[in-house]
Design goal:
Layout lengths: L8 E7 L6 H6 L2 H5 L3 E6 L6 H5 L5 E4 L4 H11 L4 E4 L4 E2 L4 H12 L3 E8 L4 H16 L9 E3 H6 L10 H10 L5 E9 L2 H6 L1 H16 L4 H11 L2
Parallel strand pairs: 1-2, 1-4, 2-3, 6-8
Antiparallel strand pairs: 4-7, 5-8, 6-7
Helix pairs in contact: 10-11
């Protein structure tokens, strides 16, 4: 990546009813904002006051149709940064993430990548995170929990996020992998274990494996989303 193209991040945070934690997430990003990077919060129709809480802590808060893929794609369309960084609302990145991402993209001549992930908690969750990171290194596939980043040019070259209800991160990874291998950063982003706590680690792992297997054998994302919704109640 040309050095001239690597000077600014657009940090894109999709939200839906994140009032309980959105201020904490965005407060952690203010040092990056002071260094000239922009924060775009894209809300999918929250019924709480997520948008109001986010407004003072973001450069832009926009509304979008609900669905993480649609939300992130909408924000990418208005982003000014040369690198798009997609960050979940329950994920805490390193304070100096910009000083990690931008030089690494330049030095290794890559156009996209992700962080290792750490799940809050202990025991089985440590193993789950380790396996997620190992799988990503072996396959060149990143998940949203790993805080994917991509140059704006490569994002549009790859076609952006497919407008599907699940597996948009895997679909984009596959497209980007045709352009370059991902930059697999060993620095960690810390993601909430709330999904794992809700139904238990083993059950959640099984659901994730079934969804991923279904996607790879060609089950339509809409059917996978229906399965996920039925088992996430």
């Amino acid at each position: 990546m040309d050095a001239a193209d690597a000077d600014r991040l657009s940090i894109i945070v999709p939200t839906l009813n994140e009032a309980a934690g959105i201020e904490h997430t965005l407060q952690a990003l203010q040092s990056l904002r002071r260094r000239g990077h922009e924060i775009i919060v894209v809300d999918g129709g929250s019924s709480d006051n997520t948008a109001a809480l986010a407004t003072p802590l973001a450069d832009r808060v926009i509304a979008s149709a609900r669905g993480r893929a649609m939300q992130m794609h909408a924000a990418a369309g208005i982003a000014n940064g040369s690198v798009l960084w997609f960050l979940h609302a329950d994920t805490r990145p390193p304070d100096d993430a910009d000083l990690i991402i931008l030089p690494a993209l330049r030095a290794q001549d890559r156009v996209w990548g992700r962080f290792d992930v750490a799940l809050s908690g202990h025991g089985l969750l440590l193993l789950v995170a380790w396996l997620m990171n190992l799988r990503s290194r072996l396959t060149g596939i990143a998940t949203g929990d790993q805080a994917m980043f991509v140059t704006r040019a490569a994002y549009w070259q790859a076609g952006g996020f497919m407008q599907i209800p699940l597996m948009e991160d895997i679909a984009l990874s596959r497209a980007l992998r045709q352009i370059s291998r991902p930059l697999a950063l060993q620095q960690r982003v810390h993601t909430s274990n709330r999904r794992w706590q809700r139904h238990g680690v083993v059950r959640t792992v099984l659901i994730m494996w079934l969804l991923r297997l279904g996607y790879f054998i060609g089950v339509k994302p809409a059917r996978l989303a229906a399965f996920y919704a039925a088992h996430d109640a």
